[in-house]
Design goal:
- The protein has about 675 residues and is an alpha/beta fold.
- It has three domains: about 260 residues, 3-Layer(aba) Sandwich (Rossmann fold), CATH 3.40.50; about 150 residues, Valyl/Leucyl/Isoleucyl-tRNA synthetase, editing domain (Isoleucyl-tRNA Synthetase, domain 2), CATH 3.90.740; about 140 residues, Isoleucyl-tRNA Synthetase, Domain 1 (Orthogonal Bundle).
- It contains 22 helices and 22 strands.
- The strands form eight sheets. A four-stranded antiparallel sheet has the order 6-5-14-16.
- The longest helix has 25 residues.
- The radius of gyration is 30 Å and the shape is elongated.
Length: about 675
């Protein structure tokens, strides 16, 4: 054995061994309940990032359950990511002096298809390089033929039940991408802004958007605000920048009496809350911003200006008129297109929607009745809060790349989240009752970041319950975001982004895996620095050197000794197995990994191996059996290193390392 562990020399060979022998396919003991995860499909947009590296948590679960002898399926796949791919391909065409419209739909879709397939191939290789034990024979893609059939069937069933309709409602709009966006694609970022206090007839009110005042149809106050009781239900006329305007005063509980002066302007065409107020009080809706992000003719002399230009001009004229009372600096959340970065506009638009309230009711019930468990439990509150206040889901997009809405004369495509909402069952063959569907559905686990609990998970549950009459999975495990060593969000602009693939090339895959797991409690954000990864590279070398010390010696004694140190070690390893099992069952992989780390380094290496050096032949059996147990415990966390050592053990000590591969060896039993 070499003096130090060289992961770059062994990792690819080990993965080839696992694949060649079909170890990733469900096997296990007949009669045991299967353990099933469908991989949250990465977008086909280039390459993996650290968020994808968190799939390591799923690989830990899968390897653990496989070693328990359960039929285990981790089903891989990819998401076509309509708006992202469309944006990236359009960006590439622009560099080549071309554009989407000139190219035409057919040629553009060919370019998108080429881009997506190349990305898919790259990401697949990267997933393999991370050691993820996915059953590639069942690979799925949200835009392949089987998933397309599932999308058509799901749309048809929802439409027939009256749960899909077309209507004019407020949506998020990107004026650069020229499409409606889902809530998830509308990325809210905290920015410095101005709160403008302006005279409004008999009132002074505060607003961050004075440029939308041409679309105001009322002012609103809280029904219990004593300051404005006499005005509720009355009308007034005031002199606006484009002439006299008649305005109604309405009372609505959504108004915060503590915000500004407790009076807000109501612009139903350009604010989701105002739209709801407008619906409740039967107010007129006026479009003052068009789909190009410019003011409409309703704004008079301000028509044609962009939102930013109009704001400056309106504020200047309000000041000149004497209607600008004061301004305050504030920090507020502003929506941006997640793909191109453009500030989004809430607009009234004719789109296709899903009525979500009937679906949400069943999704709430499933968690309340514990048919689905959320880990950690505290996120139930977020889940219930979103579903209890859910708005209808806009599912149409004005794009070309994606699933066409399956109705005649429709040129729009479906929101990507519609097809990914079917993922737990479409990947298993639904709507057909395939063998996989019957064997593996409902699945066991959905593991993903807490930030998409309601955007994706809630939709999977709603659609799953409606279309299959079953929960899509029994458990939801939520991990946090990976942040830098100072707890800051990683971003290219900050220069603090860590690339998982360059880190694994440098320090080995297992070192990164351990760094992502230790200290990573369910639902909490994790800080990651290269120093932490280096520390686990050193641990990998420690494991290697201890194994080399034990395995490189010729085997002379098989019988166990009764030496007190040997008996003490056996008791200690049994205690560790018990602790690790307890942590694994409670999904505390962070604590399990830490327990194994400390036992291996401090108890096994620093104490026991050092103590046994003078009597190696007598202790050899205990040393080898303990090493074998520790490799099994460590395998879900550091699969490449442990499998490499297992294969060496098979060659050097075949009487101990009997299973042909560690990946299918039985999990250590408690005595």
């Amino acid at each position: 054995m070499e003096k130090t562990y060289q992961p770059q020399k062994t990792e690819k060979n080990i993965y080839r061994l696992w694949e060649k022998k079909d170890y990733f396919k469900p096997q296990g003991i007949k009669g045991k309940e299967p353990f099933v995860i469908t991989l949250p499909p990465p977008n086909v947009t280039g390459k993996l990032h650290l968020g994808h590296a968190m799939y390591v948590l799923e690989d830990i679960m899968v390897r653990y359950h496989r070693m328990l002898g359960e039929p285990t399926l981790w089903l891989p796949g990819f998401d076509h990511a309509s708006i992202i791919v469309e944006h990236l391909v359009s960006k590439q065409l622009k560099k080549e002096g071309k554009n989407k419209k000139k190219l035409g739909r057919e040629k553009f879709l060919k370019e998108a298809q080429k881009f997506a397939l190349e990305s898919k191939k790259t990401i697949k290789n990267q997933l393999k390089s991370m050691g993820f034990s996915l059953d590639w024979s069942k690979e799925a893609y949200t835009l392949d033929e089987k998933r397309s059939q599932a999308v058509k069937e799901a749309f048809s069933r929802l439409y027939e039940k009256g749960l899909i309709y077309q209507g004019k409602r407020i949506i998020n709009w990107c004026s650069r991408c020229q499409t409606a966006l889902s809530d998830l694609e509308n990325d809210y970022q905290e920015e410095k802004g101005q709160l403008y206090y302006i005279k409004y007839g008999p009132f002074t009110l505060a607003t961050v958007r004075p440029e939308t005042k041409f679309g105001d149809t009322a002012v609103a106050v809280h029904p219990k605000d004593k300051r404005y009781q006499k005005w509720i239900g009355k009308e007034f006329t005031y002199q606006s920048l484009v002439g006299p305007k008649r305005m109604k005063v309405v009372a609505d509980e959504v108004v915060d009496p503590q915000f500004g002066t407790g009076v807000v302007k109501v612009t139903p065409g350009h604010d989701p809350n105002d739209f709801e107020i407008g619906q409740r009080h039967h107010l007129k809706t006026i479009n003052v911003i068009n789909q190009k992000g410019c003011l409409t003719k309703i704004a008079g002399r301000f028509a044609g200006l962009t939102v930013a230009e109009a704001r400056k001009r309106v504020v200047a004229e309000l000041k000149e008129k004497g209607d600008l009372v004061k301004t305050e600096e504030i920090i507020h959340a502003v929506g941006h297109c997640q793909r191109c970065g453009m500030i989004t506009e809430p607009l009234i638009s004719k789109q296709w929607f899903i009525k979500t309230k009937p679906l949400a009711k069943e999704a709430i019930k499933a968690v309340k009745e514990e048919k689905i468990k959320i880990i950690p439990k505290r996120f139930e509150k977020t889940y219930f809060n979103w579903l209890e206040n859910i708005r209808d889901w806009c599912i149409s997009r004005q794009l070309w790349w994606g699933h066409p809405i399956p109705l005649k004369n429709e040129t729009d495509i479906l929101d990507t989240w519609f097809s990914s909402g079917l993922w737990p069952f479409s990947t298993l063959g639904w709507p057909k009752k395939t063998q996989d569907y019957q064997n593996f559905y409902p699945t066991t686990m959905r593991e993903t970041g807490y930030d998409i609990l309601f955007f994706w998970i809630a939709r999977e549950i709603m659609l799953g319950l409606f279309l299959t009459k079953k929960v899509p999975y029994k458990n939801i495990y939520l991990h946090g975001l990976v942040r830098d060593k100072h707890g800051q969000k990683m971003s290219k602009s900050k220069g603090n982004v860590l690339d998982p693939l360059s880190l694994t090339a440098k320090h080995g895959t297992d070192a990164l895996r351990m760094a992502l797991v230790v200290g990573n409690a369910p639902g909490n954000d994790i800080s990651l620095a290269e120093e932490k990864i280096k520390a686990y590279r050193n641990f990998a070398n420690k494991v290697w050197n201890a194994s080399r010390f034990i395995l490189d010696k010729p085997k002379t004694i098989i019988k166990k000794s009764n030496h007190p140190d040997d008996q003490k070690l056996e008791k200690a390893i049994q205690k560790t197995i018990k602790k690790v099992n307890s942590f694994m069952k409670r999904y505390r992989f962070d604590l399990a990994a830490d327990e194994i780390y400390h036992f291996f380094w401090h108890t096994f290496c620093d104490k026991y191996i050092e103590q046994s050096k003078d009597r190696f032949k007598e202790a050899q059996t205990t040393l080898t059996e303990t090493l074998k147990t520790l490799l099994k415990l460590l395998h879900p966390f550091m699969p490449f290193l442990t499998e490499t050592l297992w294969q060496i053990g098979k060659e050097k000590q075949p009487k101990f390392f009997k299973e042909e591969a560690l990946i299918i060896a039985p999990w250590p039993k408690q005595k």
